[in-house]
Amino acid sequence: MPPAGELQHSPGKQSPNTQPSEAEAAAAILAAAADAEAAGLWTQIKAEARHDAEEEPALASYLYSTILSHSSLERSISFHLGNKLCSSTLLSTLLYDLFLNTFTSDPSLRNATVADLRAARVRDPACISFSQCLLNYKGFLAIQAHRVSHKLWTQSRKPLALALHSRVSDVFAVDIHPAARIGKGILLDHATGVVIGETAVIGNNVSILHHVTLGGTGKACGDRHPKIGDGCLIGAGATILGNVKIGAGAKVGAGSVVLIDIPPRATAVGNPARLVGGKEKPTIHDEECPGESMDHTSFISEWSDYII
């Protein structure tokens, strides 16, 4: 006999709520795959750090404290960002706890970090390893810090989000408002001088080079910043102003000034920017994701007869 008060089920019968739904099962599979990917990447990062420590003993202590002594990618990044962004009033231990609690409470942030690491390693030929990206690429570090400040912003912890935003701007020369929404697989190449405004939205697998501004116009409040579609490539020094839409897979040439929408997979160049192929029938390139290919010049023969 079962103890008093204990429910007894007939063999072969199950509670209707014990079996996960198809959606829950699919989500569990995706979560397990993401966990495995993150674990595999972390193993590779530690192997790279061990190799670098053997090759360059002067860095052994630094590599141990930032990577090799930690049990996970989240702990390593939290420790590294805490030391990078600390000040006399924002202590590294406080920042470490803040970053770690945020990263571990939301698995989507860890997944975005993994995608950002892969983006830098694959798209930037100057990136020699995942560990070097994690340690030294300020565009990558600025994006990870922004993910935390954005989480704080959505939790109505706006003073702390703004304090963190200010430190990122001071240390990395990257100014991203905490309210800006940014996807995953993002590359801020070189990153110096990047400015992203409060109501800006950036999709997945986007590459943005240095001195790019996603800004507003005038002093009106409300939705006033650009919306960048998935897979876009924004060249160095480009300025995109106002609540304009840059279609998925579009390219914006270096130094361009964009004030109106750009169709998907079109290319805009110049100041003021104009569409390659013309406004009425713009040339639509074959690439779905120039943000991954990093091709800045394939359009030049259609746009200009400039010859050196």
Automatic annotation (TrEMBL):
Query: Which GO biological process entries does UniProt record here?
Result: cysteine biosynthetic process from serine
- Annotated membrane-spanning segments are none
Q: Which keywords are on file for this protein? A: Acyltransferase, Amino-acid biosynthesis, Transferase
Which SUPFAM superfamilies did the record assign? Trimeric LpxA-like enzymes (SSF51161)
EC number(s) stated in the UniProt entry for this protein = 2.3.1.30
Polar residues composition-biased segments: 11-21
| CDD domains assigned | LbH_SAT (cd03354)
The record's annotation in InterPro entries points to: Hexapep, Hexapep_transf_CS, LbH_SAT, Ser_AcTrfase_N, Ser_AcTrfase_N_sf, Ser_O-AcTrfase, Serine_acetyltransferase, Trimer_LpxA-like_sf
Write down the Gene3D superfamilies for this protein, in alphabetical order. Hexapeptide repeat proteins, serine acetyltransferase, domain 1
Can you list the GO cellular component terms from the UniProt entry? Answer: cytoplasm
Please provide an example of a Pfam family that matches this protein in its UniProt record.
Hexapep_2
Class of this enzyme:
transferase
Pathway, per UniProt? Amino-acid biosynthesis; L-cysteine biosynthesis; L-cysteine from L-serine: step 1/2
Spans annotated as Disordered = 1-22
Similarity comment = Belongs to the transferase hexapeptide repeat family.
Name it.
serine O-acetyltransferase
Biological source species:
Raphanus sativus (Radish)
